[in-house]
Write a structure and sequence with these properties.
By secondary structure, this protein is mainly alpha-helical. It has 13 helices and five strands. Helices cover 56% and strands 7% of the residues. The strands form two sheets. Strands 1-2-3 form a three-stranded parallel beta sheet. α8 links the parallel β4 and β5. It is globular and about 75 Å long. The model has no long low-confidence stretch (mean pLDDT 97). The protein binds tryptophanyl-5'AMP.
């Protein structure tokens, strides 16, 4: 089976962008690929965070992955810092990655603006560690949202540079996008993200979630109820696409274009489907929260079996570098 690797940061609540752009898609891929999924805690320390929160966030992120349907029988799930070879390989990749390639990364530029007081090397080096995450397992496919495509391209470049200098050792991985690779935030303009407080968390209670959907920006040109709208430029319709079936989508699109339904009607249709899908995820998350020993066992077993692969790759890499071993 072909290998898939992907990761998610433990930066607080997982939002519906992460869910439909990545995690829900990962669950499907476990049917046909040999999959490894990782909670990337070392990536998360590139920005300031409350120290006392980190452990809880890592565990909660793992819980959400399991609650969304990832099963340790069908894939490996682990925490990045539990497999130390990721950072070791990142160092080696640092030595084949031009600084200029990292400076032009969109995410680095955005984060440098957001965290002016702490533009650290880790923030710039973030995609190199990401390349190490993927390549240490020689994964050929990386399921991510659209915002990560540039990082996977850099990963391909790193693999190419390494192979050119030290011999063919790594594949050039390809992105796999989900059906909803780019969900905008509730303001309808920026990408849905945790840092911008512009998100709908998948564990939020029904009332809070509805309030966010109810007040979310739609097609800005549709000002009055009687105005016709354009689903193609409406973020609510994009989210609809991720949660609703063809009939509902058709009804919503026709109703919007003819103004026979208002945005609130469209949002009600969406929310019904969203909540139907997310309520069981929330219930499973509650059960897992009460069963953290099980979650720790899954993570330890994931790290154990990933370590075996990672150690082999590092051995091969050290030999390729001509080191004394
Ligand atoms: P993170 O935690 O920021 O995002 C996790 C996944 O969610 C996707 N995503 C979205 N998809 C659609 N719409 C959105 N608004 C949205 N916001 C986030 C992201 O594209 C991502 O797939 N750098 C990675 C973590 C990582 C990684 C890796 C991924 C570290 N090492 C190796 C793949 C392979 C990230 O951005 O995580």
């Amino acid at each position: 089976m072909e290998k898939v690797f992907s990761g998610i940061q433990p930066t607080g609540e997982i939002h519906i962008g992460n869910y439909v752009g990545a995690v829900r898609h990962w669950v499907k891929l476990t049917e046909t690929y040999d999959c490894i999924f990782c909670v990337v805690d070392y990536h998360a320390i590139t920005v300031e965070y409350p120290l006392e929160e980190m452990r809880k966030r890592v565990l909660e992120t793992a819980i959400v992955l399991l609650a969304c349907g990832l099963s340790p029988e069908k894939c490996k799930i682990f925490v990045q810092s539990h497999v130390q070879e990721h950072t070791e390989l990142a160092w080696i990749f640092n030595c084949v990655t031009p600084i200029g390639d990292l400076e032009r990364m969109t995410q680095f530029k955005d984060k440098s603006k957001q965290h002016r007081a702490n533009i650290n090397i880790g923030l710039m080096d973030y995609p190199v560690l990401q390349a190490a995450d993927i390549l240490i397992y020689k994964a050929g496919f990386v399921p991510v949202g659209e915002d990560q495509v540039q990082h996977v391209e850099l990963c391909r470049e790193v693999a190419r540079k390494f192979n050119y200098r030290f011999g063919e050792h790594f594949p050039e991985p390809r992105v796999i996008l989900s059906v909803a690779p780019r969900i905008l935030g509730v303001d309808g303009t920026g990408k849905m993200s945790k840092t911008m407080q512009n998100y709908i968390g998948i564990l939020e209670d029904e009332a809070t979630m509805w309030e966010k959907v109810r007040t979310a920006v739609t097609d800005v040109n549709r000002v009055r109820r009687k105005d016709t709208g354009n689903p193609d430029i409406c973020n609510i319709y994009t989210i609809h696409r991720a949660f609703s079936g063809d009939d509902v989508l058709d009804e919503a699109a026709k109703g919007c274009r003819s103004a026979s339904i208002g945005c609130i009607d469209c949002k009600k249709m969406l929310f019904k489907n969203m909540w139907e899908e997310l309520a069981p995820v929330q219930n499973r998350a509650k059960d897992l929260l009460a069963n953290q020993d099980y979650v720790m066992d899954v993570l330890r077993e994931g790290a154990r079996s990933c370590s075996t692969i990672a150690k082999q790759t590092m051995q091969e890499v050290r030999e390729a570098l001509g080191l004394l071993i």
